[in-house]
Amino acid sequence: MKNILKHLSAGSISLVLLLLIIFTSNEKACSAQDTIVLQVFYDNTLYEDAGGLISNGRGKYLFAGKGDNNLTRRALIHFLTGEFVPYCSKVLSVDLKVHLSGGNPANKTIELRKMLDYWGQGDSDAPGLEENGTSADDYDATWLDKYHNANDFWANPGGDYSGIISNSITVGGPGYYYFNSTPQMVADFQSWIDDTDSEFGWILLGDESSDSTAKRFHSRDADTSEFRPEVKLIIETPDFYLYMESLIEGFWDGTDMVEDLITVKLRNPVSPFNVIDSSSRVAGQYGATYCFNAPPGDYYISVHHRNTIETWSSAPINFALNGFEYYTFKDAVTKAYGDNQVFKFSEFCFYSGDVDQNGLVDATDLLNIFNDANTFTTGYVPTDVTGNDLVDVTDLLIAFNNANSFVSVIRP
Length: 412
Ligand SMILES: [Ca+2]
Ligand SMILES: [Ca+2]
Ligand SMILES: [Ca+2]
Ligand SMILES: [Ca+2]
Known about the structure:
The protein has helices spanning 2-6, 10-13, 81-84, 183-194, 363-374, 393-404; strands spanning 24-25, 32-39, 42-47, 54-55, 61-66, 72-78, 90-103, 108-115, 134-135, 145-147, 152-153, 161-171, 175-179, 202-205, 215-218, 230-237, 240-245, 260-267, 275-283, 288-292, 297-304, 311-312, 317-319, 324-328, 342-344, 347-349. Helix 5 (363-374) packs antiparallel against helix 6 (393-404). The radius of gyration is 26 Å and the shape is elongated. It has six helices and 26 strands. A hairpin with a 4-residue loop joins strand 10 (145-147) and strand 11. By secondary structure, it is mainly β. Bound molecules: calcium ion (4 copies). The site of one calcium ion has 8 residues, from helix 5. Residues 354, 356, 358, 360-362, 364-365 line the site of one calcium ion (CA).
């Protein structure tokens, strides 16, 4: 968020207040379905221009197609999804509404595609109907710049966007037009929720095959609020969240922990401790947020990783509906069931070395590591106990020590 706001003009920040967010929740025992309406957060038009000097950051309009001068215009829109949609949400559908102000009234196809890189909106504001833009301001996107005056250029003049068409519609005369949900539009939005750093919005491409085809849409600076581009999202939100911190012995060097995929399983608090749900995230030493769909209540958690001993919470954790629980294994050996952790560099860590994930560190694990070390195996493999993408004697030594101590899973 900070990174994005840094590149917006000061006036844009107040736009947060203009955001229309409708949030309705159905009370259901399991995951809730919500509808969220988001107005465009920022937008701009790329005007074809060999110098990359033209933009229209704060204009009322966006253009897609070719102008009277036979030069192309492309519209960019961005919704800042990560800031306004709950983490871990699953997108079920997304509809985009735009309002056509004018341009050539002939039917033209407008394509929607996902942007592959960031871009900006400065304070430039073209006069009149804005069809030719104006001088770009700092941080404006132009035909050449992602950020104008920042020495930050597109790889491809005219913007870097996906080769996949997320949707395409036919646009004629003035009025509202709808890009109704497609699997690709859902995938685009899901990718923005899952990784907010990758949210660069969409581009609208018009008919670029001949002169005077451009369509003029209203932008977020339209005088009439309802005319601004808007998405309606239907999402499923998790029932509750867990922020968990844990360390992996072999991956922890006292300063950093190599990031890796960690899976947390939610378990019934009574025997046979069935798995009710699970959530996987890439986590380093500061942990990660895991999301679950299950009735609120008490659950043990068991934590799983490609070569550590499965480790359980010392007691069931209470989860409330829509609640956000915090649990750290790092600060006390007793946080793990059966005190099943090892002390390393001032913190408690999960035991490493169970490369075949059978619940104990023994000769079989050692043999697997030994064989991979012997053949100089590299890459993302379970026998890499230190997470440096290389199997060698260091990995073997960690597992050897734990095998020597008969390290194994301890469950309730
Ligand atoms: Ca704009
Ligand atoms: Ca204007
Ligand atoms: Ca094992
Ligand atoms: Ca290694």
